[in-house]
Amino acid sequence: MIPTALPATSRVGELPTGTGYAPCHHGELLQGVFLDDDGRRCPGLVTLPLAGPGCTATFTRRPGTAPEALTVLPADRTKAARAAALAVAECARRTEAPPCGGDVRLTCDVPVGLGMGSSTSDVIATVRAVAGAYGLRLPGDTIARLAVRAELACDPLMLDGRPVLFAQREGRVLEVLGPALPPLVVVGCTLGGGAPVDTLALPVREVGDGDVRAFERLRALLRRAVATGDVQQLGEVATASATLGQQVLGHPEFDALTGIARRAGAVGVQIAHSGAVAGVLFDPAAPGLRHRVRSCREALDAHGIPATRTFTTFTTTKELLNGPAHRGVDRQAGPHTPRRPARLPAL
After folding, report:
1. Phi/psi zone of residue 323: left (φ > 0), alpha (ψ -120 to 50 degrees), beta?
2. How many CB atoms lie within 10 A of CB 12?
3. Which of 109, 253, 264, 331 is the most exposed place for a label (fewest CB within 10 A)?
4. pLDDT, tens only, 273-305
5. Which of 220, 211, 209, 291 is CA-nearest to residue 243?
């Protein structure tokens, strides 16, 4: 589960300061166009959580300054700057305090341009930091609304980690699919040599009624997979969604990726529909898991597909084949087993 990050208020000298954190994700398990409760078409997605990398923001209020007197470091985080201005206005309204300027400082280790939610992580951490400086903890739906206004579309990183179908352009949950995803082991990799994807340059594909029906079928299958803990069915949904995404993304290595997954005994593959990150999905209860994971990584290397890291969607004692601590990965983890911090190599 993605950890819930709430702002904490402190003081630096006489200036109120708040801190906020937001995680990232590893692309999508499902993305398409779905029907909301009113029967209206709505773009939506289900992300694959990734513990570890994220963004921390601090915001120091400067009372008496103009609200537009906001600075953000690094200075190129323009979406975070917009989020800070929107959050200041929202928090000032809620506390009836005059809006003012301030300074945002961001520390992030989420790779940019791979489809892992780096900009949303920046934005959410910033909003939480501003709220903390005002002594507030904003609810998830408010943070989502501000995030969409700041970056036009956002990922559901402000929520509690439950698998949800999320309308990224509207900042609202279309459906809570269940309490948690079935357990997965994911061998992460990057397509296209790890080069960032310019989502604005991607071709726009017209979505017809048949496409919506296909996405709704995948939604129903994913709902069932989550309810029953069916890892195989979850992998089939993710692979079908990734295959549909190739109509726009057109990754030349995609056929090789699905072939590697099939030969290694994986349940499927997933991709970022707005980036280059991808994953080969394994059932952690499969016999010979350690051998399957190793052979998958070796096959990725042989095909020139850079492997990043192997991680799980459940609590585990060891990083799978990520250095010498891979021994014992076939054992089921206990419910209170601590997790090592996740790391993603520079790409």
Report:
1. left
2. 9
3. 331
4. 888 999 999 999 999 999 999 999 999 999 999
5. 211
Residue 286, class by beta-carbon neighbours within 10 Å (0-12 exposed, 13-18 middle, 19+ buried)?
middle
Look up residue 342 and give its DSSP letter: P
Question: Locate tokens 């069916």: which residue?
Answer: 230
Write phi, then psi, for 68 (nearest 5 degrees): -80, -5
Query: pLDDT of 209-243, one tens digit each?
Result: 999 999 999 999 999 999 999 999 999 999 999 99
What the block records as the tokens of 304 is 């020139």
SS3 201: helix
Q: Is 97 helix (H, G, I), strand (E, B) or coil?
A: coil
212, 35 contact by CB (below 8 A): yes
**Per the structure block, which two tokens stand in for 11?**
């003081």
Instruction: Give the position of tokens 């120091």.
Output: 60
User: What residue type is assigned to position 261 of the chain?
Assistant: A
Full-model pTM: 0.85
The residue type of 76 is D
SS3 80: helix
DSSP state for residue 325 in the 8-state scheme: G
Q: What is the DSSP letter of 215?
A: H
